[in-house]
Amino acid sequence: MSAIYIQYEAKNINDMRRSIQGVRPCNGKNFSLDELLYYVHGYVEIIDLYNGKVLVVNEDGKSLNYKLNKYATQIYQDIFGGHDYIVDDVLLCNKNQIE
Question: Quick one: pLDDT at residue 7?
Answer without folding.
Answer: 75
